Amino acid sequence: MRWGDNDAYGHVNNTVYYAWFDSTVNEWLVGQGLLDIAAGDPIGLVVETGCIFFSPLSFPGIIDVGLVVAHIGRSSVTYDLGVFAPGTDVPSAQGHFTHVYVDREGRRPMALPTAWRTRIEASGQSRLGGVILPDKTCDIVGGGHDPIDNPNSLA
Q1: In this predicted model, what pLDDT tens digit does every residue of 96-130 receive, in sequence order?
Q2: Counting beta carbons within 10 angstroms of the beta carbon of residue 122, is it exposed (0 to 12), middle (13 to 18) or buried (19 or more)?
Q3: How far apart, in whole angstroms, are the C-alpha atoms of residue 106 and residue 108?
Q4: What CATH number does domain 3-122 carry, 3.40.50.360, 3.10.129.10, 3.40.190.290, 3.40.190.10?
């Protein structure tokens, strides 16, 4: 976490969690060899995001972010994410993040390329129900978490 992530109430501001979600998803896509930020086609536009907060985090500190693919549509992918304090098994926050994939130039929705769909499904990050938040996916945060049963889970 950064000094500027805290708000006037002494905890990480809710908007920062959305930036963590965005960074985690995009770093995961780059790591899967799917996203070329500078020239790739398609690109993902965020159309929906949400977060439920369970416990505060504050600077200084390190976080872990877990990611699973919750749903793969024709032109969209929804990711479920959890934000953890180090050494904890219950997330401080849990949210979702949906990309609609569009062609870079025209910005019109397009079917998810077969290679993308195959790679996402084969990544081991997909689920269609059950527990949420497996292994760490974002290098900005530290160690990872095994799948857990979270009493606060949306699943």
Answers
A1: 999 999 999 999 999 999 999 998 888 765 543 33
A2: exposed
A3: 5
A4: 3.10.129.10
